[in-house]
Write a structure and sequence with these properties.
It contains nine helices and 15 strands. By secondary structure, the chain is α+β, with helices and mostly antiparallel strands. Bound molecules: flavin mononucleotide.
Length: 360
Amino acid sequence: MDLVTALARARGPQAPGPDSPAGPAVRPWPGPARPLPDAGAGQLDLGRLLRLSLAASDASGRLRPAPSAGALHPVDARLVVGTDCPLPPGYYGYDPLRHLVHRLGPAPDDPRPGATVELTVTARRTISHYGHRAWPLLLLDTGHAAAALWLAARSLGVGHATADLDGRSESPLAAVRFVPPDTPRSVAGAPAPGDLTARRSARPPLGGAPPRGLLRTVLAAAVEASAGELAWCAAVGPPHPGLVEPAADGTLRRLAAGDARPALAAWAAGQSWIADTGAVLLGHGCPSDAEAPRIRRAHLRAGFAVHMAHVTAGRHGLASRPVGSWQQADLGAALGAAPGGDWIVHGLALGTTHSGEGTP
Ligand SMILES: Cc1cc2nc3c(=O)[nH]c(=O)nc-3n(C[C@H](O)[C@H](O)[C@H](O)COP(=O)(O)O)c2cc1C
């Protein structure tokens, strides 16, 4: 698969064809399944980490606690288990529907303390609905899953987590490494475990402009989590419609005047509800001449950052919904720069009121 060509096609105007079968919801890992034992003292609590991030555990039939384009959940997790874990060192495939693991093979020589969760995708699941628009969504979904794992570690206070989103590898696309703590300790400002499992994408319409202070907080979460890979702004409606971006002094500065939301609705596969949304946070960058590693990095980071913004919004009482399918969304050109230099990569619709939780 040529990612450069795939992204150019996904950004183009052509609509996908009819749906095809998505295939099994879980990758068919070989061998028998076994439970994840409870963690002993000083061990990394892998079972709870996965419960909060990747396990299907609510009564609605949702396949994961993290969001996913089209609720298709294409992300697969392989665990590289080292020492100080409740499972013997080795490689394991994770079954998120049953919260069980399949042992795939022995650990590398000289295993390190802790575990790494490697993320790959079953592309067919997302392709089944989005066709040629699937690849950016697959990468964004992987970024969201990485963020869910990273946040689970913070929430449980179970050690140090680092996310590898550098885009260099096609498989795994991303990895989150956990190092066990001496003793679990709470992390200041971390979300409660219940916040992570209760997270939902708010159902449109999402009316009501978020107060400026909250918009700043949500934008700051995205900026911090994207590690300089993308720029961020937000489209706001009346009484002062325009695009605002975070300024160095912590305030919001006006990037452009005029209501951008109708254009965003058209660019986001014609989702008309976006034109009436309180605000739309946008991650942008990833120029047309980006090569595959940079495309992967930008989309993985965008998914990671929008996830952080989404959870931050929820903790402040704002409704929000990721928006990942963008066509002809050349924000730079719309603002007067040369075409192809600055595309919308991912978005988060925000509002103060909405019609209920769950998916439309
Ligand atoms: C990468 C990504 C892109 C998404 N794009 C859209 C979108 O364009 N429009 C929309 O209404 N929802 C979008 N969603 C939200 C999903 O539809 C939602 O996560 C899914 O239905 C599961 O529901 P939940 O988030 O409440 O668990 C997106 C989610 C992700 C992760």
